[in-house]
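Example record

One chain of 169 residues, shown exactly as stored in the release files.
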Amino acid sequence: MTGLWLLIVGFSIFTLLHKVNNGFPDVKFFIILYVIGMIVQFSKILMKKFRVKPRTKSDQKISNIAILIMSALVLLSYIFVMLTNKSFDYYAVRELWILILISVGIHFLFFIPVQGKYLASSLSILTILNCLIGIIFNIDLDIIFVFDGLIKIIFGFVYIYSSKLKYVS
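Predicted C-alpha cells for this chain:
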C-alpha cells in the first residue's frame, strides 16, 4: 500500500512545477492528487492487494504518531518561515517547501518498525539529503521538487515490487 501512496505523492510533487502568476508553486493540483492518494490509501480493496502484512494496532499507532509529528513539524516550519522573513517572496516559499520536505523525510524514519529499516531509512535519508543539497548549493526549488518526486516514485515501485514478493526488508 505504501508503494501506491508514494507513486501518487511522487507524481503530485511534479504538479508543483506549475506556477501561479506570482511564480509560486500552484498547490491546487498537488492538493487534489494528495486527497486522491488519501482515498486510495484507505481503500479496503487496494489494501488487500498491496499490503505486505496485516496491519497491527502497533503499526497503526506508529503511523498515527509519524503523521502527527510530520504535521507538527510542518506547522513549526510555517511559523519559522513567517517569523524569520519580512516578506513572503520566492526565498521564503522555497525555504518553506524545503522545510516541509525535510519534515516528510523525518517522518519516514518513524515507519522503520512498520515498513522495514532499509527501505524506510533509505527513503528518509534520500529525501532529507535532497533538501540539504538544495540548501547548501542554493539549487532552484523546481530541481528539488523533481528529485523529490523521482525519489518517491522510485521507492513507490520498490515497495510495490516488494509487496508482490511478500517480502519486507
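Notes: The radius of gyration is 16 Å.
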